[in-house]
Design brief:
This is Ribonuclease J (Endonuclease and 5' exonuclease). The chain is an alpha/beta fold. The chain has 13 helices and 18 strands.
Length: 451
C-alpha cells in the first residue's frame, strides 16, 4: 500500500486483505491462501482452483519448525490439497543445490543475542529492508540487555512503520525510538538496524563504512553484524564495505566468520521434496531460480516419481497451457526489464518517470574520475563532458559542478573506494549543482576508474 501511495497509483487499485485459509472467487477461479514460513512474515502459498484442476504456487517458502515470528508452515492444508489432487505445482527452487533443510530463523536470534550481549559499544545490524523478523529479533535482544533500538535507511524506516501499524512489531513503550534520540544515548545502549547488507551504494551501511553518513559514525568497540550472505554478483561490494568498517575500528560479524548471522528463507532440497510429497502434483513447474536450478529440480521430481516429460521448464514470458490431462508451452508474451529514470525527493516520496524525449531535452553529462584502488584518494578528474545541455548551463555551470564534486571527493575519508557509493555521490552532487542553475536534470553518467 505504501509503495502504491508513493507511486501515486493507490487510486488505480482496490486492496482486499486476506488471511491464511481464506478463499476468494474470480469468475470460474477460486483462490485459496495457505500459510508458509519465510523470512517475510505471513507469506502465503496460493492454490488456484480451476475447472481443469488445482494449480499451487508455493511462493518463497521453507519448513521452519521454530519460526521467530508467526506459525510453522500449514502442512495440514497442503496435505489436504494433495489428497484432493493437484494438477500442477509451481515451486521455489533457488536452494535445490543445498542438501538437507534450511536452518530455522531461531539460529539467527541466538547469534544476534550473543553479539549484543558481548558488545561493549554500539551494535549495528544490517539486513534486507523487508526482513521484519530481524527487526523483531533485534528488539527482543536489545530489551534483554537494556539497549534501545532505532532503524535507519528509508526503506527500513517505512517497512518498520508499516509493521508496527499492522501489529507485526509490538515493542514496549520506549524501546523503538527515532534515530536522533538513540544517537544521544551512550554507545553501549544503542542498537541500530539498517539497510545495506549487500553493499548497496545508497544504503546506510555503505555510507557508514565510507564515513559519509550524515549522522552515524563507527569506531573502536562498535560491532557491525551483517545479517545476510552476499547475493552472487555482490561479493566485491560487500567485501569492500566490510574492509572499510574494519578500517574505522569496528568489529564486523559476517557469514564467513559465523554462519549463524543469516539463514535463507528458501527451502533446501529435502524441503522441496517434502512439498512434492505433500501435494503429489501431476505436473511440476520450477520457478524462482536459474536454469540450472530448474534442471536440478526436474531431477528431484524424477526421484519423487514425476517423469521428466511432466516437468515444464519455463522461460520469462513463456505461456503455459493446462488441460485436465495435459500441459504444454504455448508461445510467448512481451516480458523483461524496463529501464526508467526516477527523479524526486526521496523523503517526500514524489516520483516522476522521464521519457526519452525529456532526457533529450535536458542533455547528457559524462563524469570521469580516477581514484586510488587502495586508499580511495582522487588521482585525476573529475572531468565533465556534456552534450545537449540547455543554454543557461553553458556558461560556467559545468565548472561549478566540477568544483563541487572535487570538494566532495577530496573531503572523503581514506579507505577502499566503494564504487557504487562514488557513482551515487557523483550523480547527487553534479545533479544538484546543475539543477540550481536551470531547474533541469541532465542524464549523468559517471565513469569511475580505479588504479
Amino acid at each position: 500500500e505504501g509503495k502504491l501511495n508513493e507511486a501515486r497509483m493507490d487510486k488505480l487499485v482496490t486492496l482486499h486483505p486476506v488471511q491464511p485459509r481464506d478463499k476468494v472467487r474470480f469468475g470460474q477461479l477460486e483462490v485459496e491462501f495457505i500459510h508458509v514460513t519465510h523470512s517475510i512474515p505471513d507469506t502465503n502459498a496460493v492454490a488456484v482452483h480451476s475447472p481443469v484442476g488445482t494449480i499451487v504456487d508455493t511462493a518463497d517458502f521453507k519448513f521452519d519448525p521454530t519460526p521467530v515470528m508467526g506459525k510453522p508452515t500449514d502442512e495440514q492444508s497442503l496435505r489436504r490439497l494433495g489428497e484432493r489432487g493437484v494438477l500442477a505445482l509451481f515451486s521455489d527452487t533457488v536452494r535445490v543445490e543445498t542438501a538437507g533443510s534450511t536452518p530455522s530463523e531461531r539460529v539467527v536470534l541466538e547469534t544476534m543475542d550473543a553479539t549484543i550481549k558481548e558488545a561493549r559499544g554500539m551494535v549495528i545490524i544490517a539486513t534486507f529492508a523487508s526482513n521484519i523478523s530481524r527487526i523483531h529479533m533485534a528488539l527482543a535482544a536489545a530489551q534483554k540487555y537494556g539497549r534501545k533500538v532505532a532503524v535507519a535507511g528509508r526503506s527500513m524506516e517505512q517497512n518498520a512503520r508499516v509493521a508496527v501499524d499492522l501489529g507485526y512489531l509490538d515493542p514496549p513503550e520506549g524501546l523503538l525510538l527515532p534515530l536522533d534520540e538513540v544517537l544521544k544515548l551512550p554507545k553501549d545502549k544503542r542498537v541500530l538496524v539498517i539497510t545495506g547488507s549487500q553493499g548497496e551504494a545508497a544504503a546506510a551501511l555503505a555510507r557508514i563504512a565510507a564515513a559519509e553518513h550524515p549522522k552515524i559514525r563507527v569506531g573502536k568497540g562498535d560491532v557491525a553484524l551483517l545479517s545476510a550472505t552476499p547475493i552472487p554478483g555482490n561479493e566485491e561490494t560487500v567485501t569492500r564495505t566490510i574492509d572499510n568498517l574494519f578500517r574505522r575500528g569496528a568489529h564486523v560479524v559476517y557469514s564467513a566468520l559465523d554462519r549463524g548471522v543469516h539463514v535463507s528463507g528458501h527451502a533446501g532440497r529435502d524441503e522441496l521434496r517434502k512439498m512434492l510429497d505433500l501435494l503429489h502434483p501431476r505436473y511440476a513447474v520450477p520457478i524462482h531460480g536459474e536454469f540450472r536450478h530448474m534442471v536440478l529440480y526436474r531431477d528431484l521430481c524424477a526421484e519423487a516419481g514425476i517423469p521428466g516429460e511432466r516437468v515444464l521448464l519455463p522461460e520469462i514470458g513463456g505461456v503455459l497451457e493446462f488441460g485436465p490431462d495435459s500441459a504444454a508451452q504455448r508461445g510467448r508474451v512481451p516480458a523483461g526489464n524496463i529501464l526508467v529514470d526516477r527523479l524526486g525527493d526521496r523523503a517526500g516520496g514524489h516520483v516522476q518517470l522521464r521519457t526519452r524525449d525529456h532526457l533529450a531535452d535536458d542533455g547528457v553529462v559524462v563524469v570521469t574520475i580516477v581514484v586510488d584502488r587502495e586508499s580511495g584518494a582522487l588521482i585525476a578528474g573529475p572531468d565533465l563532458i556534456a552534450r545537449g545541455l540547455r543554454p543557461e548551463l553553458q556558461n560556467g555551470a559545468l565548472n561549478e559542478a566540477e568544483a563541487d564534486l572535487r570538494r566532495q571527493l577530496e573531503r572523503r575519508s581514506n579507505g577502499q573506494p566503494q564504487y557504487g557509493h562514488l557513482v551515487q555521490r557523483t550523480k547527487e552532487t553534479v545533479g544538484k549543482a546543475l539543477y540550481r542553475r536551470s531547474k533541469s536534470r541532465p542524464l549523468i553518467l559517471p565513469v569511475v576508474t580505479e588504479m
